[in-house]
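[job 4471] stage=fold_predict status=RUNNING
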Amino acid sequence: MFEEILGLPTHVFVVHAMVVFVPLLAVLAIAYVGLPRWRHRLDWALGILALVTPVTAFVAIESGEAFTDALIARGYQGQILDQIFEHSRYGDILFRIVVPLGIVAIALLVVTSGHPRVPRLPALVTPVLAVAVVALSLAALVYVYLTGHSGASAVWGTTL
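[job 4471] inference complete, writing structure tokens
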């Protein structure tokens, strides 16, 4: 399931989605925290990205593992595998950041929704969620860069 799409590794397609979704989720989450007047315009996009991005990250991890297994089966070894494993480590960390970011962003959406079914929570909940969203967003931006750069270096590093 995670191996190929149209004869190309699935990972090649999914990583492009990650390069778009993670920064969008991070920037929208920070904007949601920092621009309360705009929340009603950002909430739907933040909610969708908070759900889609972790799922896409999971597919990226699984397809990357399938791709690595295929490369190992073809006899790849040495420095290129070291680069792939470094890329994989960054990707695992990114996944561990994006999932909580999605959860905390959804929690913040619920808490700030003003919906009558949302129980009154202590006043400290919203600022704590806001700080968590900003911190996770910044970490996600750093790790999407590190993951993408290490993957691109592994593929293109000796080409140009």
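[job 4471] summary: The CA atoms of residues 23 and 146 lie 13 Å apart.
[job 4471] exit 0
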